[in-house]
Amino acid sequence: MSPELQIQELTEKLHHYNDRYYQDSVSEISDYEFDQLLKELKTLEDQYPEFRQLDSPTQRVGGTITKTFNAVYHRYPMLSLDNTYNEQELRSFDERVRKGLDGEAYEYICELKFDGISLSFTYENGSLVRGVTRGDGTRGDEITNNVKTIRTLPLRVKSEKLPPLFEIRGEGFMPLSSFQKLNEEMETLGDNQYANPRNAASGSFKLQDSAETARRGLDCYIYSFLSDQDFFKSHEESLLGLKSWGFNVSPGWRKVDNIDDVLAYIHEWEEKRMTLPLATDGIVIKVNSFEQQRELGFTAKSPRWAISFKYKAENKPAILRLVTYQVGRTGTITPVANLCDLTERALPLNKIVGVHLSGTRVKRATLHNANELERLGIQLGDTVFVEKSGEIIPKITGVDVTQREQYPTEPIIFPTHCPECGSKLERNEGEVAFFCPNDSHCPPQLKGRIEHFIHRKAMNIESLGEGKIELLFDLDLVRTPADLYDLTYDKLLGLEKNILNEETGKVKKISFREKTVENILAGIELSKTVPFKNVLFALGIRFVGATVAEKLAVYFKSIQNLRSATYDQLVAVPEIGGRIALSIESYFSVPENKQLVERLEKAGLQMESDEKPIEIESNVLEGKTFVISGTFENFERDDLKDKIEANGGRILSGVSGKLNYLLAGANMGPSKLEKARKLGVTILSEEEFLAMLND
Ligand SMILES: NC(=O)c1ccc[n+]([C@@H]2O[C@H](COP(=O)([O-])OP(=O)(O)OC[C@H]3O[C@@H](n4cnc5c(N)ncnc54)[C@H](O)[C@@H]3O)[C@@H](O)[C@H]2O)c1
Ligand SMILES: [Zn+2]
């Protein structure tokens, strides 16, 4: 693959994971894997800077602002931290610091890296006036009412010496005890549980209802102070100052004066951090002197005077007792390893006690697919290595075949039929996974459809979660998405179901009371206003993801037009290929699907689009190319792109010799600006751009 394509692919992949992580609070891969991909991209970009994408994830903070809160600009940008997983790189960081400081002596402050979300608090005349999330680093969501529920955060600070305006920063987190309590409650309500305390904190700080936020018992550790005056001389002084004003500074920090002592601190906390009442994922190292911090400066994304060291996932041997097979929402069959500790070989085969790993008991680990079984070459009874990092599903990384002499093993036989519905399994050419083709009757697939239907990017019915759907499905009330619209208050009130938590063995009762029922119905009602493109995505037509659905909605404008479109009409749509066209045709040829769509139409869902394709305003920018960078007063970035295209201009992905204009907003990276200057690209301000439009 060419480096250009590689860069494009990696960029896209990372955008996808960022989106899932920051918007949906879901990690599809481990942080370690994510960070390795990011590193790979960075290396490629350094080698081929001309192919770096406009919005490369190496250049900016991964998060975004939401539409539900007021977005406010940060006085001082909120950046990320560079990270590493190994000591060698940490020593290289130390080398860079040494060089950057030209032989001056320096000290480090080591702190724990708390796993939550960054928050920024503004104090005016000693009073807390604003609390904001990091967002995209330039702008964040204003969540003042929610941060005021943090009990340890002073609303007023009394000290004669305080500057009239200052900002403090910290990590908002959910203590492990609150996390456990919250998830237990959510389980009983049939709501989706949070995968880890970080996601729980992130979700809870962004609730609309502050009373609910208050109930969830959030907390915050403060780690930085910012003001326009030189108030403190060092990070150490600021931590002591913050503490003396009553801020919640975590006591674990330490000042050291060389990298070996940093490493000692890291080793010391590797195990000890498991005993803390909150989740941590590493250590943060900061140059102590503020003067020296200024000398070292920043990259586009992170300070050069700090780095985080992240602990790698724990890896441990265990015994593979049994392989079970899960049927996923799309029919994919996933083999799952059932594990126990090495000392528990004598237990009966079906007794799955699990292994102790990273502070939790791990009973199961994914084996992905049949190919992976082959690749690992594992057998039942084998001694395997298990790894777990944070919230990620544990996985098997290898096998110790030397143990087979002493402990005989048996081959694993992959099933030929679906464990849920008995259909014969199939595998598409070139694909690794077997799947159950019975998509209209296989229970997990039916449930999966409904779960997809209510997803945020689809019908966005927040009041229904996995547990609730399970209950409605098992009681035969909802078998297809259309059934949701036939639910009534009387049908729902008082429904109950016991759910067994396989991990803990505890039984929980889900029951629908008045408030729950009202919420469910209100959520379903509200979904009738969701635009056509979402409805189209919600149908779950194969290969029709959110982006394709949007294109189809803009082009065909209604379900009526789409349903009657021929293959040739479908492939005539820009970016719609034969594979998608065939899938759409085949979807509408199935009687069950036709009926589903008709019922949804009757229920009153939006089946027509009022979205317009980009309307041509003028051709004043005809033949001109643009790259947009930074933030703007009058436009969101996407609006600006639309504006350029509506006036005949074209957007390019990176600064190159071919480019006509670099549209430079606030806070853009200096390297891009410099490159544009070198290549003689005209740099436009927002005002100049507006003037150009009005020419
Ligand atoms: N698994 C995935 O799919 C996925 C996707 C996107 C991001 N991620 C993870 O998230 C990371 C990016 O997130 P990020 O930009 O917030 O970086 P980060 O979480 O690695 O580090 C920066 C953050 O650390 C926090 N922090 C905690 N304790 C601190 C302390 N004592 N001092 C200073 N800061 C402290 C701050 O909130 C700061 O913003 C990635 O490197 C990756 O590990 C994972
Ligand atoms: Zn099946």
TrEMBL record:
Annotated EC: 6.5.1.2
The record ties this protein, via NCBIfam families, to:
dnlj, PRK07956.1
Q: Cite the entry's keywords alphabetically.
A: DNA damage, DNA repair, DNA replication, Ligase, Magnesium, Manganese, Metal-binding, NAD, Zinc
Statement: the UniProt record of this protein carries the keyword Transmembrane helix: no
Enumerate the spans annotated as BRCT domain. Answer: 616-695
Family note: Belongs to the NAD-dependent DNA ligase family. LigA subfamily.
| Gene name per UniProt | ligA
Q: What is this protein called?
A: DNA ligase
Q: Does the keyword DNA damage apply?
A: yes
Cofactor(s) needed for function: Mg(2+); Mn(2+)
Identify the enzyme class. ligase
Classification from the root reads: Bacteria, Pseudomonadati, Bacteroidota, Cytophagia, Cytophagales
Q: Where does NAD(+) bind?
A: D31, Y32, E33, F34, D35, S80, L81, E111, R134, E171, K286, K310
Question: Pfam families, per this entry?
Answer: BRCT (PF00533), DNA_ligase_aden (PF01653), DNA_ligase_ZBD (PF03119), HHH_2 (PF12826), OB_DNA_ligase (PF03120)
Q: Name one GO biological process term.
A: DNA repair
Concerning SMART domains, the annotation shows: BRCT (SM00292), LIGANc (SM00532)
Q: Which organism is it from?
A: Dyadobacter luticola
Q: Which InterPro entries match?
A: BRCT_dom (IPR001357), BRCT_dom_sf (IPR036420), DisA/LigA_HHH (IPR041663), DNA_ligase (IPR001679), DNA_ligase_AS (IPR018239), DNAligase_adenylation (IPR013839), DNAligase_N (IPR013840), NA-bd_OB-fold (IPR012340)
